[in-house]
Amino acid sequence: MDASRSDGRIPVPFERDAPIPIALGVSGGLLLLVGAVLAAAAIRDGGSLLIAVLDIVFFWIPGFSFVYAGYWLPRSDLPDRSHPRIVAWTGGGVIVMYGFIALRDLHPAVTVEWSIGTQAIGLTLGSVIGLVMGIQRAKATVRTATLEERTRELEANERELERQNAQLERFASVVSHDLRNPLSVARGNLELARDDCESDRLEAVDDAHARMEALIDDLLTLARQGESVESMQTVGLAEVSRLCWRQVSTGDATLSVEDAPPIVADRDRLRQLLENLFRNAIEHGAVDGSSVAIRVGILDDGEGFYVADDGPGIPDGERDRVFESGYSTADSGTGFGLAIVAEIAGAHGWEVRAVEGADGGARIEVTGVEFA
């Protein structure tokens, strides 16, 4: 019976719909009564106080155990179907103990007196041990069933993830083929149109084509970065940062890299992460034609690294939104750069956040990084 009920009531012991806990409670009460009666009779008949105490002990131990079990079972997370098994283990324990006593009695060199005391000892040991083993067995069964259910849920989630990954792969294929082909045709016709005439409108068309190409590249990258990283290796952060800087159109921007120990990462995805951070800093950090200075360093607590710039920074209210797909504060931005950064970081098991830099600009921190 569950600890919580759909009708809002708290379970109470010995409920009408719990016959086995009721039976355990009643049996325990009877054992308590028998122990008290036997102890009183022993004293009344002139028996020793030790015999009276032992009668109480040997009957009250299983008595209290049964009463508590009857009280506890309705409140526990054990299902009602496990109650008969607990009773069976309890009865089995008593039978085993009585069988052991009987075997002792059959031995030619051993004499066993089947007194109330002997029976009480067998009842106490057998019932308590059987009750405890039955409860533990029931708990183990519940845990096993719970683990099996969680395993089925995990398998279902894994199948769903595989289905989603397959959809992403199909999406990437459509983007790379079905969108690039007409874009190539449009660009070819644009070049032919330029041969016939010169117009500012053609420049606007060319800019639109370039933006479409950037969107396609970012969408492809974003669609393929959600998978967990399997190939991890020791990578020099400073070395990869300088390599990525040469692959980015930096203009008048400058880069400084602190000396840092190597980190454990997927080299190719780390390059994509850094390149997107550099592009984002250059795109948003350069204001009115000014140059932007970018710095790569290790966090003071040693939990990761950062990429900071001295640009205008990110307003407080937008720092949590900058990692959302499609969100951008620049007219020319695609809105996928930092979303790709977040996906790559998540695939590594890292976390990423935006804070204010020491120079007042934006600072993107990547935490949870393992240093080699």
Automatic annotation (TrEMBL):
Documented EC number(s): 2.7.13.3
Residue ranges of every copy of the Histidine kinase domain listed in the record: 174-367
Enzyme class: transferase
Key words of the record: Coiled coil, Kinase, Membrane, Phosphoprotein, Transferase, Transmembrane, Transmembrane helix, Two-component regulatory system
Protein name per its UniProtKB record: histidine kinase
Source organism: Halorubrum glutamatedens
One of the Pfam families matching this protein, by short name: HisKA_4TM
Catalytically driven reaction(s): ATP + protein L-histidine = ADP + protein N-phospho-L-histidine
PROSITE patterns hit by this protein: HIS_KIN
GO BP term, pick one: phosphorelay signal transduction system
Keyword Ion transport: no
Transmembrane segments: 20-43, 49-74, 86-104, 116-135
Xref: InterPro entries: HATPase_C_sf, HATPase_dom, His_kinase_dom, HisK_dim/P_dom, HisK_dim/P_sf, HisKA_4TM, Sensor_HK_Regulatory, Sig_transdc_His_kin-like_C
Gene Ontology MF annotations: protein histidine kinase activity
